[in-house]
């Protein structure tokens, strides 16, 4: 018998609350034949779903009925136009569910699985690159290169495309036709800059050091990730999620720097 306690219901309810509106929660209660009549009660979505799940379990006295709410929200038809959201939901749920020996399958059904003995084991089993990057709050420009299509090729392909995005952004900013390291050398000259960091006048040693740091970061990205041969280097495994996280974290930092940059003169 699965042990379903208040803390477990609270954790699951909090996850599910990010995927429904208040009106959808009301509709869900009606469809499941457990109407709550609490839409105008002032409760947040987390608490409303918690109360609905608790009500179902209390009235049915069957812990298996926890699946009613979960499978309603995990119905793949809800995500027919956005499968990445469906995968995010599955990942978020499967980590706590696996501690109870449960998982959400790719058809949205809750099924039995091997119990994860610790939270660390559960995360290792179900965390994806996308979920880990979102937890790290990487730049949104980076996340758009973490689509399922790109990641199915391998992590290197996604990193390679994201690095190309860095240099495309600099070309848009400057009008240059160059790429990779040549582009950086052209646009980030200390004495004749084309791109500047907003508020940095390149007058003090600290300002110059910051500018050199940005230039060197971009050159590192060019040599390690923009170069299509970079994946052959011994320290970079294109199939390693940890190497991909390192790469995307570096790319995220570069995008954040560029958010605070302007061009001094156009090159086109």
Topology:
Blueprint: H1 6-16, H2 22-31, H3 45-60, H4 66-73, H5 83-98, E1 102-104, E2 110-112, H6 119-126, H7 129-135, H8 140-143, H9 148-153, H10 155-174, H11 180-187, E3 195-197, H12 205-226, H13 241-259, E4 261-263
Antiparallel strand pairs: 1-2, 3-4
Helix pairs in contact: 1-3, 1-5, 5-6, 10-11, 10-12, 10-13, 11-12, 12-13
Question: How many DSSP-defined strands?
Answer: 4
Distance between the termini: 70 Å
Q: Please give the radius of gyration in angstroms.
A: 24 Å
Largest sheet: 2 strands, antiparallel
Number of helices: 13
The coarse silhouette is elongated
Question: Total domains, how many?
Answer: 2
- Mean pLDDT across all residues, rounded? 89
| Share in β-strands | under 5%
Concise summary:
By secondary structure, the chain is mostly helical. It is built from 13 helices and 4 strands.
What would your notes on this structure say?
The protein has 268 residues and is mainly alpha-helical. It has two domains: 6-127, no CATH class; 140-263. It contains 13 helices and four strands. It has helices at residues 6-16, 22-31, 45-60, 66-73, 83-98, 119-126, 129-135, 140-143, 148-153, 155-174, 180-187, 205-226, 241-259; strands spanning 102-104, 110-112, 195-197, 261-263. The longest helix is centred in the last third of the chain and has 22 residues, at 205-226. The mean pLDDT is 89.
